[in-house]
Amino acid sequence: MVVAPLDPDGKLLFVTQFRVPCGAAMLELPAGTLDTHDGTIEDPLLAAHRELEEETGYRAGTMERIGGFWSAPGFSTEYLDALPGHGPAPGRCGPA
Question: Considering the entire predicted model, what is its pTM?
Answer without folding.
Answer: 0.82
